[in-house]
Amino acid sequence: MRRARWFGVLFAVVILLVGGLASVVRGQPESRVPRFITDDEGRALILHGLNTASSAKSTPDAMPDLSEDDVEREYRDMGTNFVRFLIQWRAVEPRPGEYDEDYLDKVAERVSWYEKRGYHVMLDMHQDLYGPGVTAKGDVGNGAPRWATETDGLPVSAQEQWELYYLEPGVVRAFDNFWGAASDATLMRHYAKAWGEVADRFADADAVLGYDLMNEPWGGSVQGAAFESGPLAELYRLSIDEIRDVDADSWIFLEPQAVGVNWGLPSALPAVDDPRRGENRIAFAPHLYPLPMDLGDDYATVKGEVDAAMTTWSDNVLRTAQRLDAPVVLGEFGLDATRPGALDYVESVADLADATGMGWSYWSNDPGGWGPYDEDGKASPLVKTLDRAYPRAVAGTPTAIDSDADSLTLTFRGDPDVKAPTEIYLPRGFGDGGELDCDGCQSDWDADRRVLSVATVADDEQHTITVTAK
Ligand SMILES: CN(C)c1ccc(C(=O)NC[C@H]2N[C@H](CO)[C@@H](O)[C@@H]2O)cc1
């Protein structure tokens, strides 16, 4: 096995041993999220979507390779209602203190494509390996502008496995200078103010649900609880303050550190105050990439280990969600969908999300083996796997969701204050397209949007509705 692989395995074993012990001694969490994101009508949202798009990491204008027709096709093919839309600090603030309104106009145009189709948009300030400035060619990192990238001339040597770039001296130093630059946190304050500019622009955009403050944070030479409860929590506080100065109501999504937590280890992210009036609107947005598959094995081969890792991951995510009193959106999960067992894995993750009340956005919609369409735009079998029945918006609190190709069962506690109907998306193949039957409810079928609207209940009792196709 290549040196890098051995390193990965060794790194993982140590992490898992430490983390595993921690999770074992921590007792059982709740089985579902403590809260839900709600829409303007007070309905609990179940978010299903895609990450759009990795291509934005490297395009000169930081725009994804996306047309409005692509958004229309996504809805028609998969009935999604959510998008994790990648934006880049380098494009928001190309020079210190100067913000590119043309870039934000382009983002707004794409947001409008989703808004027309009833989507909820999460803006993700995306980075991987800090930013293009960690190398002269700009071919390794994405996210931060060059003026905010201080490697102090330390080397970033070419790596066969991209993850190993995170250990390169120049990358570690760029992060260290960001997290600890001078005592007044100069670069972190720039980053937070960039969020303030984005929020000022989208505060009144109905489709923008909220802001994912940093993709897959990396602490450089500070790791684990010291990082998450230290500089990472401080960046989140600074960014929340800048956002709340201009936007009182959008949701703010916090990610844990990626390494270890993506695999299922517990996060030490502390609860962070939301200064808005009323309930806090802070959500938790972890990623899921089970280590056995990260190390190259197929789900068909390591299903047992991966299923166990998913259980540990879910338990630890729900513990953190309880600590933060936060809704949960699984911001990223994905794999090469052409590999043996891959679609079963995607289905398992979507079932886990139903069972726990999490939303999700699949990584990613970029053409190729991981995505729903190939380079020629031809739909892959992943489209059918992602096109699944789900309650998009619930007039109450969902307590159980169970769906398959022929039926959907939703149990929820009614909320008499919510007047808008519960909306259930049903895929084209649902029950082979037969006549719909909604047991326990009065409903109206919108064949164009493929949405069943279910009349609200006037009480706060537990209700179960089952939709089938006769
Ligand atoms: C060592 N560190 C810090 C590390 C290792 C591995 C990942 C990762 O696989 N991430 C999963 C996917 N997420 C990004 C986009 O957010 C994709 O490029 C990765 O495939 C992240 C960080």
From TrEMBL:
The alphabetized list of GO BP terms reads: carbohydrate derivative catabolic process; lipid catabolic process; polysaccharide catabolic process
Sorted UniProt keywords: Glycosidase, Hydrolase
The GO molecular function terms of this record are: hydrolase activity, hydrolyzing O-glycosyl compounds
Q: Does the keyword Transmembrane apply?
A: no
List residues of the Glycoside hydrolase family domain.
48-367
Classification via SUPFAM superfamilies: (Trans)glycosidases (SSF51445)
Q: Does the keyword Metal-binding apply?
A: no
Task: Give the Glycoside hydrolase family 5 C-terminal domain ranges.
Answer: 388-467
Xref: Pfam families: Cellulase (PF00150), Glyco_hydro_5_C (PF18564)
PANTHER family on file: ENDOGLYCOCERAMIDASE, PTHR31308
The UniProt entry's sequence similarity note says:
Belongs to the glycosyl hydrolase 5 (cellulase A) family.
Its recorded name reads Glycoside hydrolase family 5
Q: Which organism is it from?
A: Stackebrandtia nassauensis (strain DSM 44728 / CIP 108903 / NRRL B-16338 / NBRC 102104 / LLR-40K-21)
